[in-house]
């Protein structure tokens, strides 16, 4: 069972308090919490795209399959070219195979983390089937279920996401991560007019020990969906104050702006920043694909000549 300190660290990670974890002081190296806390801190640094800081931190951890997988994920996220990304993915594939052997090193917790990190990288790379196979859709690791739910939502299969959640409720404790999974599905499906998601995010933001721009952004998105545009704008502005240039918050702010909460010129400037700074962000890719489809449709459409009046 986790200590109260490690439990708090884990909750901070799941709720997206990455900035707090990045600044976290590690426990004594002899503490049983040392490596697990270090891994959560390293993963937070990866989310913040401070991959070199994460790799430096990981050199201070005892060698394990979990540490190796976290290092590979850091190299994948920080890769500047396709070859470097593929090299990191191959490392994760090798580790995923390594933990299946009878003489594999590491305990079940380490092995589960390898699957979560590898599945996350494969999903980010568009290898959905490989990600799901690695994670295991019959898994009883709740963090793996959370990633699987995100994958199903990303491919517009909320029905499969809900099936995973209902399955997890049969064996998982009713903890914060399970509630977060439910809120994520509610946000994707609009169940109960987003009431459950809104209540969950508001409850977490009332926690004085938590500083999470991610939860602020989530509530902002919920408020957009509930047509509460000015309230959404307030949440998203606060989120960007806490974590500047976060593409998730920037994209949501641009949407709120497009719906009338922000001046048009400000929205256009922000969208330009997103396009230039985060060309691989899902919303940017989606809009770009739709723009290409529109241009192709226009190119295939022949405008008939204007009818001219004939003299009688």
TrEMBL record:
Recorded topology in the membrane: Peripheral membrane protein
SUPFAM superfamilies recorded: TPR-like (SSF48452)
A single MF term (Gene Ontology): structural molecule activity
Keywords of the record: Cytoplasm, Cytoplasmic vesicle, ER-Golgi transport, Golgi apparatus, Membrane, Protein transport, Transport
Any single Gene Ontology cellular-component annotation: Golgi membrane
One of the protein's GO biological processes: protein transport
Subcellular location field: Cytoplasmic vesicle, COPI-coated vesicle membrane; Golgi apparatus membrane
InterPro entries named in the record: Coatomer_esu, TPR-like_helical_dom_sf
PANTHER family (UniProt xref): COATOMER SUBUNIT EPSILON
Protein family (similarity comment): Belongs to the COPE family.
Function: The coatomer is a cytosolic protein complex that binds to dilysine motifs and reversibly associates with Golgi non-clathrin-coated vesicles, which further mediate biosynthetic protein transport from the ER, via the Golgi up to the trans Golgi network. The coatomer complex is required for budding from Golgi membranes, and is essential for the retrograde Golgi-to-ER transport of dilysine-tagged proteins.
Protein name as annotated: Coatomer subunit epsilon
Source species taxonomy: Eukaryota, Fungi, Dikarya, Basidiomycota, Agaricomycotina
